[in-house]
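User: For my dataset I need records formatted as: sequence, then structure tokens, nothing else. Please produce one.
Assistant:
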Amino acid sequence: RVDNPIESPTSDGYETDLEIEEEKANYDATGREVYVNQCKSLNIIPVSYFLRHMQTTEIQMSHHGLGTKGTKAIALALVNNTTVLKLNLSDNALEAEGGQYIANMLRENCYITVLDLCENNLGTTGAKCLGDMLHINVNLKEVYLRGNSFTDKDIEHFAEVMKDFRLTHFDLSCNCIGEKGGLLLGPAIAANESLEYLNLSWNNLRRKGAIAVANGVKNNVMLKHCNLAWNGFGDEGAVALGEALRNNTIITWLDISHNRITVEGVKFLTKGLEGNEGLKHFDISHNPITSTGGCQILESFGKNSSTVIETVELKNVRVNDDLWSAIKESKKGSPRFDCDTSTVHGR
């Protein structure tokens, strides 16, 4: 007879129910244990707010002074976290190194959909790391990168991936994007089929770069909210923006305030506005268009039987009798219509 001993349930070949439960109990789905250990390793004090909110869907940690070490600990803790969906680390002195930690984390984490890294001086290295990450991460929907010292050269890291990424919201405002950067962004905006919100305000977009961006808006099929304020579009850019408004009926919100557009540029804008069927909010404040330009803007909407315009911003445009009459006439045509001419009033 050949002996065939049966192993007992407690032998090395089997796990008891108790061992399984212990393994489940030890699994750290939030990354809390990783965070505490990393803080010890880096000789920094754990942030109590982060510990308290690791099991919530949103972490709002702007202005916490994290620095690169604090960011590293948080990034490593979030690699396997499955609860946090929105992460705001704006104004935390991340610098390029901190940006790299976050980018590396987002190569693995597929749950975070909203990322805010504004005002962190990420620079060229940060731009490259984030651009490379966006080639891989298909779950992010909103990325805010205002005020990170990005230059024209840094836009190279975003322009190509921007053609294909799935973001719906992208903010590159308050950077140093000039003419060359605009030339890169234009084709990317045109090719993108997911963006609904784009903020390029407070940059240096001008001349050919401004025209390229306007052409991108013209050919985009999804963009609804576009902020181009505080750039240098001028009358040359206004020509391209007029073409964009004539062809793009998807966009509903456009801000081109503070762009050195004169009454000459308004002539081209109105050609687009006369045929636009989608725009609801239009801001051309703080441009030297005079009351004559303001009248032309309002009259262009009046000539458009298909217009859905609700708000026109004409701040810092002097209101004379003609403009005041044009405003009243516009309100007669649409009870919901509003025209803001605050800052300067005069007859």
